[in-house]
Amino acid sequence: MKSVLLIGLGRFGRHMAQKLRDLHHEVLAVDRDERRINDALPYVTNAQIGDSTNEQFIASLGVRNFDLCVVAIGDDFQSSLETTALLKEQGAPFVLSRATRDVHAKFLLRNGADDVIYPEKQMASWAAVRYSGDHIFDYVELTDEYAIYETSVPGAWIGKTVVELAVRQRYRINILAIKRAGTLEPMPGPNHCFRADETLFILGCNRDTQKFLQL
Questions:
Q1: Other beta carbons less than 10 A from residue 47's beta carbon
Q2: 60 with 81, same domain?
């Protein structure tokens, strides 16, 4: 369990608070808007109304004690930049800041952010891959060259085993897991026989996975 300071409770901040709660982390949420604070109370451990661009207010939070500080402000870049800088000045060990534009990301990193999250850009990239393919159900980019895809079983594979198909040798991909009826089977063995009601989680170089996805 980690202690998280979450600053900014717009849509992104609220969704992050909910997920952090699901992961059983302790969250102190901060926002200027009392209504947003009240809406977030079911999802956070504690909450405070305050101006995160105020040095005294940031100092009062004891940011050194948090494992992670998240600046989720998306509608006011100046406030996001000032908040990020103040958190680092006060000794925050790790600051994750939200960016809405490439230039914002650059300035945030130069002014104290340890990492930057770019939800709109990342979601656009995911949606482009997910919905431009007929058989792709999910996608996780690992690097510019490698990704994990959830995809349907090719028709020609149904009724055949991993070893019969010589998957790694012929297709240059790794099957990380099989999912059927909501149940995940990690690392299927060589004698696993593929079925039409399964989906595959595959890992490989984008060049090879794209060839596979055309089957």
A1: 22
A2: yes
